[in-house]
Input
Amino acid sequence: QVQLVESGGGLVQPGGSLRLSCAASGSIFSINRMGWYRQAPGKQRELVAGITSGGSTNYVDSVKGRFTISRDNAKNTVYLQMNSLKPEESAVYYCKANLLLVRGGSEYQFWGQGTQVTVSS
Output
């Protein structure tokens, strides 16, 4: 059984910073791509940033230069450092992992339960 557990959300003032973490646990053979998504009320879930097992990253244009995604493969953990946060970035942030349960098996997607980020003065 695989679990993704996010942490690090909370209330921050505009211009502030937060660091989100997402740890994957369970019977995992390997993790390929990991990513952070966010969903604000009444809006669709959107990709914020992604990172491959080799460390290649991509970001939605609106966060480039302010957010940094990273991962620790030994800990099966992905991070999202968020700087200069804006009120419109308030949302539930979710992590997703594409992973293999066994060598040579199919790739599966797992989601975390989400962590609330609120940017407000």
